[in-house]
């Protein structure tokens, strides 16, 4: 079986590599020539655990190919996935220009029956637009060709993307023809072993499922953060509350960790996009509006605690930041809480020294020389006034507190992810601020 994946980012590269790994010949297409040239040499543009080895293996076996020519890629493909970015437009809606550009390119070059699948996260109605764009191009060429569109939203999580793709909680596919459904069943068969389900539905429901899933996850985070803030006010501890509610099987304990707010390339933009879709249809998604408002405010909570301790004038002060990526095990800094925190601290006159296990290059690209970059977690503590933990990387979980004590000027830690035990902090002589738990001194 031969397929193409258009867009070689987090989703396109992981999906393409995993399909290649089960024996399918996959051609990955991207307009970014630098990226494609690097990939041809086995240089991976993103950090994703396990991906590099898998890419190398499949390149060697000749099953994973890279090109900038969509025409060449789709020549023998039975299925073409569109996995390009859908960034937020100015009004919050998903910008479909890349998706529709690919659709037009497909229409310009296709010469046999194919299933064209949107894997990008796209608003309800996009598959119809993709179909119309392809039909338009075929008509311009005076060519009559049978083809199908399908929607196959991707649920992988950065940092665990390969496992999520190989062992999915579910695969959702929206189709409108039996032929397309059969092809998608065949393609995903190797991933269904051990009871991983594939759920077929109509196309608008598949498109909606992705937004509903991300909206639900974002809601869980904003809910627990809102509760955490109330816990601090009333003198409760969000970690105990989480244990208490999480043991209820109707609630569950996953994805209800209080913190410095959600970021990343998906939740912020998808929440905005579904709010906008609802508004376009004259409906107000009140819960999601609140989810977004709570999250915007949550990114500032850690800085409020820093102000509470040191006051508003932070000139002459230096903060050591641990973690820059929006979550552990990724170098992705899109919409990362770290960016908001850094911006605010700098505005208040502070200097920043930061360390992240994998996001340093990405941080340099975004922030340039606005901050100082350390070589390891302890390096950034030298002459810093306090430690601020923003991303819960495993290597930050059991640090050497004696070394921290020696290096930082003030024995104070601001923990944006609740990774330390408040009692242990007090025993070690630190002032300790976390989220949804009262400050300890
Ligand atoms: P990305 O920005 O990492 O990659 C997109 C790629 O598409 C880029 O390499 C870009 O050069 C390429 N591209 C743009 N226009 C193109 C064109 N005309 N032809 C060929 N290539 C083109 O994006 P991503 O994070 O992989 O996300 C892709 C889609 O998947 C988005 O809709 C996103 O919401 C969705 N998604 C992302 C994740 C995630 O964790 N990143 C998870 C699930 C779904």
Automatic annotation (TrEMBL):
Pathway: Nucleotide-sugar biosynthesis; UDP-alpha-D-glucuronate biosynthesis; UDP-alpha-D-glucuronate from UDP-alpha-D-glucose: step 1/1. One of its GO terms (biological process) is polysaccharide biosynthetic process. NAD(+) binds at residues 30, 35, 86, 121, 158, 269, 334. Its EC number is 1.1.1.22. SUPFAM superfamilies: 6-phosphogluconate dehydrogenase C-terminal domain-like, NAD(P)-binding Rossmann-fold domains, UDP-glucose/GDP-mannose dehydrogenase C-terminal domain. The keyword Transferase does not apply. Pfam families: UDPG_MGDP_dh, UDPG_MGDP_dh_C, UDPG_MGDP_dh_N. This is UDP-glucose 6-dehydrogenase. It comes from Saccharicrinis carchari.
């Amino acid at each position: 079986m031969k397929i193409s994946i258009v867009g070689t980012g987090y989703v396109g590269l992981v999906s393409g590599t995993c399909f290649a790994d089960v024996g399918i010949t996959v051609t990955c297409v991207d307009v970014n020539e630098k990226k494609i040239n690097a990939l041809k040499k086995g240089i991976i543009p993103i950090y994703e655990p396990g991906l590099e080895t898998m890419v190398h293996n499949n390149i060697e076996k000749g099953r994973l190919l890279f090109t900038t020519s969509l025409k060449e890629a789709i020549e023998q493909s039975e299925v073409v996935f569109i996995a390009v970015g859908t960034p937020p437009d100015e009004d919050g809606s998903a910008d479909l220009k890349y998706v529709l550009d690919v659709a037009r390119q497909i229409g310009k070059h296709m010469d046999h029956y194919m299933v064209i699948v949107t894997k990008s996260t796209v608003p309800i109605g996009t598959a119809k637009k993709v179909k119309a764009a392809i039909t338009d191009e075929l008509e311009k060429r005076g060519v009559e060709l049978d083809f199908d569109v399908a929607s196959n939203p991707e649920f992988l999580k950065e940092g665990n993307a390969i496992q999520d793709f190989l062992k999915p909680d579910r695969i959702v596919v929206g189709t409108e023809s039996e032929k397309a459904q059969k092809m998608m069943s065949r393609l995903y068969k190797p991933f269904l072993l051990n009871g991983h389900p594939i759920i077929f539905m109509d196309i608008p429901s598949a498109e909606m499922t992705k937004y509903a899933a991300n909206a639900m996850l974002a809601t869980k985070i904003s809910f627990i953060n809102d509760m955490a803030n109330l816990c601090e006010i009333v003198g409760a501890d969000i970690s105990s509350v989480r244990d208490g509610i999480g043991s209820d099987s109707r609630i569950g304990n996953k994805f209800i960790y209080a913190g410095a707010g959600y970021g990343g390339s998906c939740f912020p933009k998808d929440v905005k996009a579904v709010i906008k879709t609802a508004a376009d249809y004259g409906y107000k998604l009140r819960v999601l509006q609140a989810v977004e408002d709570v999250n915007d405010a949550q990114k500032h909570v850690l800085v409020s605690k820093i102000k509470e301790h040191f006051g508003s004038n932070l000139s002459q002060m230096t903060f050591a930041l641990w973690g820059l990526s929006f979550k552990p095990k990724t170098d992705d800094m899109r919409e990362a809480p770290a960016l908001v925190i850094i911006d605010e601290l700098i505005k208040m006159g502070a200097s920043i020294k930061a360390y992240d296990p994998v996001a340093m290059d990405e941080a340099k690209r975004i922030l340039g020389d606005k901050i100082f970059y350390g070589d390891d977690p302890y390096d950034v503590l030298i002459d810093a006034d306090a430690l601020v933990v923003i991303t819960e990387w495993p290597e930050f979980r059991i640090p050497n507190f004696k070394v921290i004590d020696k290096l930082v000027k003030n024995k104070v830690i601001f923990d944006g992810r609740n990774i330390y035990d408040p009692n242990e902090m007090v025993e070690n002589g630190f002032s300790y601020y976390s989220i949804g738990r009262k400050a300890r001194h």
